[in-house]
Amino acid sequence: MLKVQNITFSYTKKGAANPVLNKLNFSVNRGEHISIIGESGSGKSTLLKVIYGEYDLNEGQIFWNDTEILGPKYNLVVGYDFMKYVAQEFDLMPFITVEENIGKHLSNFFPKEKKERVQELLEVVELEDFAKTKVKTLSGGQKQRVALARALAKQPEIILLDEPFSHIDNFHKQSLRRSVFNYLKEKNIACIVATHDSEDVLAFADRMMVLHDSEVIANKSPQALYKDPEMPLTASFFGEFNLINDRIIYAHQLQIVETSDLKVRVHRNYFKGHYYLIEGYTDEDIIFFENKSKLEIDQEVYLTSVP
Ligand SMILES: Nc1ncnc2c1ncn2[C@@H]1O[C@H](COP(=O)(O)OP(=O)(O)OP(=O)(O)O)[C@@H](O)[C@H]1O
């Protein structure tokens, strides 16, 4: 189990401290999948780096089971065998092939096992056809997949992923995401994923942590937070929403009815595939709702909220 106990961390720039994490407490079980979300600059990457032991804490402690994770002040080499970290900037060996990169840290004493392991990982990241390709000739998304496979090669107990699919095109993203996250579950590898993409979270995360103002402001299942997001920042992660009488109401929860207290004049239609997102105005506010078809501009409709 990962235990993060009361940790505080600041970057120091020209003697001035920039506090990024303030008294964070949480734990992650073996095999558990945690997503960290938050605005850009809220400290998601910093939190992953601190857990990895890349920086020294100002306060608090981090443990994986009984081992305390210590920073560079205490460790000549950053990192531990049981934990892997795939950063946004993946550092690969450009002049050797994909399979050589993936197998880089696997022992050569067991060539058959090594070959099988590399093949298994090539399949997880869907790069079988690129095994013999030199990494320098790969695209950004392909490199990201090699970095993922390399991090998994020695089967860590916990893996930290920073925006793991950010460079991957939509065509491959869906199946790659399923393949990687299902693999981690199967092997009981804990993972902490920093992401902006709700698709990384909703179907896969056991818990979702929201970072804001240097603190964890929510730490619940995606289902619980979707149902009761508590604050606009969390709701925004799930889609378009409105604040009506201080209540968060998602755009899809508003429906056109014959008459109601909520009268809206249609301002714009946005095509979304199987529905349109409609932007409308009341006398005071902008309201977003969904409709199967496009509506006439300036048309007046009445809305009601449904669960
Ligand atoms: N090496 C560094 N030195 C000084 N300040 C830094 C450093 N890295 C990040 N910061 C600052 O720390 C804060 C948190 O940055 P961090 O990269 O952790 O945010 P993030 O939530 O991961 O952002 P994003 O979603 O844009 O990747 C920001 O204000 C950033 O400017």
UniProtKB/TrEMBL annotation:
Q: PANTHER family recorded for this chain?
A: PUTRESCINE TRANSPORT ATP-BINDING PROTEIN POTG, SPERMIDINE/PUTRESCINE IMPORT ATP-BINDING PROTEIN POTA
List the lineage, top down. Bacteria, Pseudomonadati, Bacteroidota, Flavobacteriia, Flavobacteriales
What InterPro entries does the entry give? Answer: AAA+_ATPase, ABC_SmlMolc_Importer, ABC_transporter-like_ATP-bd, ABC_transporter-like_CS, P-loop_NTPase
Classification via SUPFAM superfamilies: P-loop containing nucleoside triphosphate hydrolases
Alphabetized UniProt keyword annotations: ATP-binding, Cell inner membrane, Cell membrane, Membrane, Nucleotide-binding, Translocase, Transport
Q: Taking every annotated instance into account, which residue ranges of this chain make up the domain ABC transporter?
A: 2-238
Q: Which Pfam families does the record associate with it? A: ABC_tran (PF00005)
Q: Which domain of life is it from?
A: Bacteria
Give the protein name, as stated in the record: ABC transporter ATP-binding protein
GO molecular function (one): ATP hydrolysis activity
Q: Which residues form a coiled coil?
A: none
Q: Which organism is it from?
A: Gelidibacter maritimus
